[in-house]
Specification:
six-stranded antiparallel β-sheet; TIM Barrel; alpha/beta; six-stranded parallel β-sheet; 365 residues; 11 helices
Length: 365
């Protein structure tokens, strides 16, 4: 028997209801479809099933349901008449693991009521599921170590709220903007950035001291230490200066340069990739912090990390305490399809499709 769990309230999403109802965000052919059905008075009672094609993690389902609740309906004598109560909707839940071609939602009712919504609810689930799947991948790779969700600068600002929620459900312990954290009442987190260090003339220690002075009571202070490309030295200097106010240092060396602490290692008998944030750099920073008495200071690794790269670090037991992951979490695809598979009670689907088992779905009120 399908279980019942709490769903996000439709009010969470602040949907542009009038534009959704008008078809403003819909593929035009769906708008024409709805308009024609209304014009000719045709009311096909359909069963629509929604699915995707990968082993994945379902995201965006609550938002898709909110779109149906807000947008389902018809025009009668020039007035909008809501139609959600005429539909029977069943669905899985946010964060559910899903299989290829498994129905994640079914919609049953007069197709005239919701034909114009397909573009919007499919696109919503495609985006959120992509984020869910990618974040869960790095969370699993990190073996329980915190993942910080940092791709905001790599995408349009309007996607932040829902993406942040998807990352949160998938296991990220922190996001970088307040918008990303807004659906669960959280706040964005971050590190002392390069921009602030630049504003202090490149003095990482001075920038970090002033930052900690004003914000140590509000957050865990983490400082980027690669400004001078001497992360080992800078990490110890920052830890010495901030004493107990420093939570961690963040390594973010560019993939095109070699940190100063590794220059003499490049001639070692055992070859390694010396650029960017690599195993040897992390080990050197960890050793330097420990030798200076800062064993409690954490190391955050960032800069081009993916699930595969995190897996490699974990297999090598590299002493990273947390990972900051950015653009890789918004790359890829996880497209959805919606098919009518039954019309007026009779099977009716295009060739190659049919009504599939949907016993995992729960009714939506």
């Amino acid at each position: 028997m399908a279980e019942t769990r709490e769903r996000l309230s439709p009010e969470t999403f602040r949907l542009p209801v009038d534009r959704i109802r008008s078809g403003y965000y819909a593929d035009a052919y769906f708008v024409y479809t709805k308009d024609l059905l209304e014009k000719v008075g045709r009311h096909p009672h359909v069963l629509m099933q929604v699915f995707q094609r990968k082993d994945s993690v379902l995201g965006g389902i609550d938002e898709a349901i909110a779109i149906l609740k807000a947008g389902a309906g018809r025009m009668v004598d020039g007035e909008w008449v809501p139609g959600w109560d005429e539909l029977k909707v069943r669905a899985l839940y946010e964060g559910d693991e899903i299989s290829p071609y498994e129905p994640v939602m079914t919609i049953e009712g007069d197709y005239q009521l919701f034909a114009h919504l397909e573009t919007i609810y499919l696109g919503t689930m495609a985006r959120r599921t992509l984020i869910m799947r990618n974040v869960k991948g790095v969370v699993e790779a990190a073996n329980g170590k915190p993942i910080f969700y940092f791709p905001a600068r790599h995408d349009h600002w309007l996607v932040q709220t829902g993406d942040g929620w998807a990352a949160h459900v998938a296991g990220s312990v922190g996001v970088s903007t307040d918008a990303q954290a807004s659906w669960w009442g959280g706040l964005g987190i971050g590190t002392v950035p390069h921009g602030l260090i630049a504003a202090y003339g490149g003095d990482t220690v001075l920038a970090a001291k002033d930052f900690a002075k004003h914000y140590a009571s509000q957050m865990n202070i983490t400082v980027l230490v690669d400004w001078e490309n001497d992360s080992t030295r800078t990490a110890v200097e920052v830890a010495d200066a901030l004493e107990g106010d420093l939570w961690g240092v963040r390594l973010d060396t560019s993939g095109t340069i070699v940190d100063r602490s590794l220059w003499h290692e490049m001639e070692a008998a055992k070859p390694f990739k010396p650029t960017g944030v690599n195993e040897m750099l992390v080990r050197k920073v960890r050793a330097a912090l420990d030798d200076a008495g800062h064993r409690d200071v954490k190391i955050v690794a960032s800069g081009g990390f993916t699930a595969d790269r995190i897996t490699e670090f974990e297999e090598l037991d590299v002493p990273v305490d947390a990972y900051g992951v950015g653009s890789s979490l918004i790359r890829g695809d996880n497209d959805y399809t919606a098919d009518i598979v039954r019309v007026d009670g009779a099977p009716c689907a295009k060739k190659g499709r049919g009504e599939w088992d949907s016993s995992r779905l729960s009714p939506v009120d």
